[in-house]
Amino acid sequence: MKPFKILCVDDEPDMELLIRQKYRKEIRKGIYDFLFAINGSQALELLKEHTDVFLVLSDINMPVMDGLSLLNEIQKMDNPAMKVVMVSAYGDMQNIRTAMNRGAFDFINKPIDFDDFTKTIEKSRTEIERVQKQLQKEYVLEAFEEDLSAAAKIQDALLPKLNGPFKSNSRISVASFIEPAKWGGGDFYDVFAIDEHRVGFIIADVSGKGIPAAVFMYLSRTTLRIYSTLNELPSEVLSAANNYLNIDNDSSMFVTVFYGVLNTQTHELTYSNAGHNPPYLMSDSNIITLETTKNMALGVMTDLPYSDRTISFKPGDKLFMFTDGVSECMNESNEEFDETRIVQVLRDNSKEDVVSLVAKMNQELVRFQGKAEQHDDITILSFQLD
Question: Of these four, 72, 183, 274, 313, which has the most CB atoms within 10 Å of its CB?
């Protein structure tokens, strides 16, 4: 363990000799290491040279630069771990009060009582170590947040930016929106061409938040995309993905998924729902909750059965998909946005295209939430057949 360095600033020539004599055993054992300066100006030079000094014991009345001026200069360093203890003649309360008001940590009276002197050093040392530990935690947190920010940018880059005609099939228009509650959210969506006439749509919500959810999100998205190329039906894709996601899933994470395949030639939508919020079908000014397939989320257990449903999806129809961060978005009165409001926004904007529809929903969520904290990822995916 390194000795605790202390800078003593005093113009009395006997002070250095007195301290070295009093603490000779502690100095020899490496407990303390004292540096000495005869005025504030010299003390500042020593602090520049010895950056591991965090405790300064300073006299108030000194030539060249007095103790109060030194205290001002040390305060400008803006180092919360640096502590200054003022040393002054007994009864000099005006200067002591001034020093304390300017940020001095403590004071000691002259003539020095070395029992009190030692207690003051140890009290200062304890506080310095506490502040240093706190600063280290903050530094680690800052670095961690920078890593999270980078991870969030990578994750954001993985999700397709969809607002307008789908490039692989001009008969489909798509709109999307995602707002993670924390760096690296667990929600995700995907849209991809399967062949000339079929397009796959996925929206999903991973359990948990933060980095673990982001990692499982990436794994889930990749797994679903791979199995969608190897299987014909959405139920087959979810079944295969579920078995894969259960391998070595020691953290017991799971993901709810809605996976639908739209065939623009037959005007049919075939889908399977693994525990996700049922989307809304907007058709002929009607808003219908899409019937669920009553399947369990992926990652819960292996060899679960998954089923499909097929519905007619004609030109002009829209499908509005969302995660529970939308319906459970809370305002400052702890009220949820709930699905009643979702349906109302859909009804009020039923004539809008999907890009405008998603934008209007997001505007309503922002207005409703106000200054309340966002507790869950908010994700929307919508498409229409033109």
Answer: 274
Dump strand ranges (E) for the chain.
4-9, 32-37, 55-59, 83-89, 106-110, 163-166, 169-179, 187-193, 198-206, 255-263, 268-274, 280-283, 286-289, 309-312, 318-322, 378-385
Beta bridge partners of 262: 199, 269
331-365 per-position pLDDT tens digit:
999 999 999 999 999 999 999 999 999 999 999 99
Quote the CA–CA distance of 82 and 260 in Å, as a whole number: 61
Q: What is the DSSP letter of 3?
A: -
Distance CA 18, CA 106 (A): 21
Which residues partner with 381 through β-bridges?
Answer: 176, 321
Using one digit for the tens of pLDDT, what is the confidence trace for 20-67? 999 999 999 999 999 999 999 999 999 999 989 999 999 988 999 998
121/316 Cα distance (integer angstroms): 78
Instruction: Tell me the C-alpha distance between 98 and 56, whole Å.
Output: 17
d(CA 278, CA 323): 9
CA dihedral 139, 141, 142, 147 (to 10 degrees): 130
Query: Six-digit token pair at 304?
Result: 């679960």
pTM of the model: 0.65
**What is the Cα–Cα distance from 140 to 56, expressed in whole angstroms?**
27
Contacts (Cβ under 8 Å, ≥6 apart) of 73: 40, 44, 65
Going by their DSSP bridges, the two strands 106-110 and 268-274 should be labelled as unpaired
Which residues partner with 59 through β-bridges? 87
The DSSP code sequence of 332-366 is TTS-B-HHHHHHHHHHHTTTS-HHHHHHHHHHHHH
Q: Which single residue is written with the structure tokens 């803006």?
A: 78
Cβ count within 10 A of residue 339: 17
Domains of the chain: 4-139 (3.40.50.2300), 160-385 (3.60.40.10)
- DSSP code per residue over 59-106: ESS-SSS-HHHHHHHHHHT--TT-EEEEEEETT-HHHHHHHHHTT--E
Largest CA distance in the chain: 100
